Amino acid sequence: MKKIIASILTVLLLLSLLATSALAASLEQNTAQRINLERAARGIAALEISTVLGGKARVKAQDMAENGYFSHTSPTYGSPFTMMRTLGVSYRSAAENIAMGYTKADTVVAAWMASPSHRESLLSSRYSVLGVGYYNGYWAAWLIR
């Protein structure tokens, strides 16, 4: 009986993790699409949405959540640019937007658009690829060319 209960709990935990992962992926995709809508409204070319880059941006979001910091500089990896290189991201030009406490794509994008420096990176023609990462209320958007 204990083995059956343990098996059921294991299955429920796995299903919960899958649901959480699917929710994060949906939030990331919706956020990236909203960023491209902001660009389109201003006649700026859409960014290529990269789930690979988004997965690496999620590492940044997770690093902030698990290490209890909110900063572009990671105690684990250093600067965003060092972190990108450490994670195998190649780029000629790069930017990072971070946020904390937002649970919806529209609100995090609105917050970034209300900040001059974040807005500039999201609307810049210097970047061609976007990856968005979300983890437990922490966000990272990586833009590269």
From TrEMBL:
Keywords annotated in UniProt: Signal
Domain SCP: from-to ranges: 34-137
Name recorded for this polypeptide: SCP domain-containing protein
The keyword Endoplasmic reticulum is annotated on this UniProt entry: no
One Pfam family per UniProt: CAP
Organism: Candidatus Avoscillospira stercoripullorum
Region forming the signal peptide: 1-24
Keyword Metal-binding: no
